[in-house]
């Protein structure tokens, strides 16, 4: 049972019943304390995974804290799992910089492949966190590393789709929303074919938010009828409300996300409600909904994703680039040669040269050095603080800078939101 129970619970959560999976694990919690260390680590890791799939971030915080406390005696794999699951929770709470700081450390752990993690997935999670933090150039380069590691490693459908989802996240935040939607729909197709309903709904949810909700509305409703995950059902309701232009339904979705402590998701739904109200001429209601969104952003210390920001945004200099052109430009800006880019992306050097030629033409530049300036999304602050430099580069050295944890919500600086332990601590 020690070997089979976590696998069975994980499968049940992936197939759309994370609540039932959590209840199954809870019924064995006392017996599990006497299991061997590796089996107990799997038990606690899957408990955290089920809580995250369910979407109740308070319950997820408790499960992740339990995993972190018990990880100290589980060696490198325990440390890796602790950092990865803390990072997943921090991203959901709107703290991508803190998540990236932990994922940097997780990426340095040589724990090999196991059934719940892989080096390529850790890199993909880091790429997603960097993109959410506005570090788009570094996110694209890290994503290329993740895909290279994925090709060289052990392939698993669940982790492969998780990597594909992070690629869609990176593209959406970097401005390639049509490319993000296409990637997300590919993930949704594979996940639905495998019966992994929460993953399929999450991918459709991302595609709908980044572009147009109407094409996914009927499909996501059909999937939600078979899924018991609270978050997935809320995501489906949000897609349907966006497709219908139903502001009141979006306000209700925001309230339910808030009750799950999913403040970033609540803020986005509230801002979407404000946008629908304003489009219908209900200006006062629009202002109230947007004010609620900003209040939620202030509570978690972050911002809305770029596609949900109110008002007109400035033109992105890279908006004309295709998905592959963005990847090539990011790698070139990071200092890789054409041969290194070709090896990383598994294309010919001539193909890389052609992509760069089109990038230069579209962006109006004539050399590699100019690409870095266009891909940087945050200015270097006065004083050269490496922890806030855009595109992952320090002012002093120009080398990749590891993100640093920041205080949020009145917490003690550098301490985890779930367990009050120092960020980066495995136990």
Using brief descriptors, characterize the structure shown.
0% strand; 427 residues; mainly alpha; globular; disordered C terminus
What would you say this structure looks like, in words?
Helices cover 66% and strands 0% of the residues. It is mainly alpha-helical. It has helices at 4-14, 18-27, 29-32, 37-54, 57-70, 75-92, 96-107, 119-132, 136-152, 157-174, 177-193, 197-210, 214-224, 230-244, 247-259, 263-279, 283-300, 323-333, 338-345, 349-363, 368-375. The radius of gyration is 21 Å and the shape is globular. The model is unreliable at 377-427 (pLDDT under 50). The longest helix has 18 residues, at 37-54. The protein has 21 helices and no strands.
What can be said about this structure in brief?
The chain is an all-alpha fold and 427 residues long. It has helices at residues 4-14, 18-27, 29-32, 37-54, 57-70, 75-92, 96-107, 119-132, 136-152, 157-174, 177-193, 197-210, 214-224, 230-244, 247-259, 263-279, 283-300, 323-333, 338-345, 349-363, 368-375.
What is the topology?
Layout: H1 4-14, H2 18-27, H3 29-32, H4 37-54, H5 57-70, H6 75-92, H7 96-107, H8 119-132, H9 136-152, H10 157-174, H11 177-193, H12 197-210, H13 214-224, H14 230-244, H15 247-259, H16 263-279, H17 283-300, H18 323-333, H19 338-345, H20 349-363, H21 368-375
């Amino acid at each position: 049972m020690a070997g089979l129970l976590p696998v069975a619970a994980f499968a049940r959560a992936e197939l759309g019943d994370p609540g039932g999976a959590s209840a199954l694990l809870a019924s064995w919690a006392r017996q599990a304390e006497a299991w061997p260390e590796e089996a107990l680590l799997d038990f606690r890791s899957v408990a955290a995974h089920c809580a995250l799939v369910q979407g109740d971030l308070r319950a997820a915080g408790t499960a992740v804290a339990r995993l972190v406390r018990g990880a100290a005696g589980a060696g490198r794999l325990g440390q890796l799992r602790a950092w990865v699951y803390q990072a997943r929770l921090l991203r959901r709470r709107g703290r991508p910089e803190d998540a990236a700081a932990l994922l940097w450390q997780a990426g340095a752990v040589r724990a090999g492949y196991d059934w719940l993690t892989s080096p390529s997935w850790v890199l993909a999670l880091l790429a997603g966190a960097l993109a959410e933090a506005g570090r788009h150039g570094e996110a694209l380069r890290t994503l290329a590393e993740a895909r290279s590691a994925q090709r060289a490693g052990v392939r698993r459908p669940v982790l492969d789709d998780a990597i594909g989802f992070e690629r869609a996240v990176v593209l959406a935040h970097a401005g390639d929303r049509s490319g993000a939607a296409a990637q997300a729909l590919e993930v949704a197709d594979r996940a639905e074919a495998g019966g992994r309903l929460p993953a399929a709904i999450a991918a459709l949810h991302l595609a709908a938010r980044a572009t147009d909700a109407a094409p996914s509305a009927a499909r996501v409703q059909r999937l939600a009828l078979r899924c018991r995950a609270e978050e997935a059902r809320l995501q489906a309701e949000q897609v349907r409300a966006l497709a219908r232009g139903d502001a009141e339904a979006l306000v209700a979705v925001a309230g339910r996300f808030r009750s799950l402590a999913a403040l970033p998701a609540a803020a986005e739904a509230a801002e979407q409600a404000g946008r629908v109200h304003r489009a219908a001429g209900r200006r006062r209601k629009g202002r109230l909904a947007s004010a609620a969104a900003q209040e939620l952003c202030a509570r978690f210390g972050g911002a809305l994703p770029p596609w949900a920001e109110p008002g007109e945004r400035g033109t992105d200099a890279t908006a004309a680039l295709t998905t592959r052109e963005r990847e090539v430009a990011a790698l070139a800006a990071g200092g890789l040669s054409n041969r290194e880019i070709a090896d990383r992306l598994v294309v010919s050097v001539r193909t890389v040269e052609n992509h760069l030629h089109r990038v230069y033409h579209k962006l109006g530049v004539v050399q590699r050095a100019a690409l870095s300036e266009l891909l940087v999304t945050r200015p270097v602050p006065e004083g050269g603080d490496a922890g806030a430099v855009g595109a992952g580069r320090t002012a002093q050295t120009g080398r990749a800078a590891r993100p640093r944890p920041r205080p949020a919500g009145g917490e003690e600086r550098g301490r985890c939101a779930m367990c009050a332990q120092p960020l980066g601590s495995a136990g």
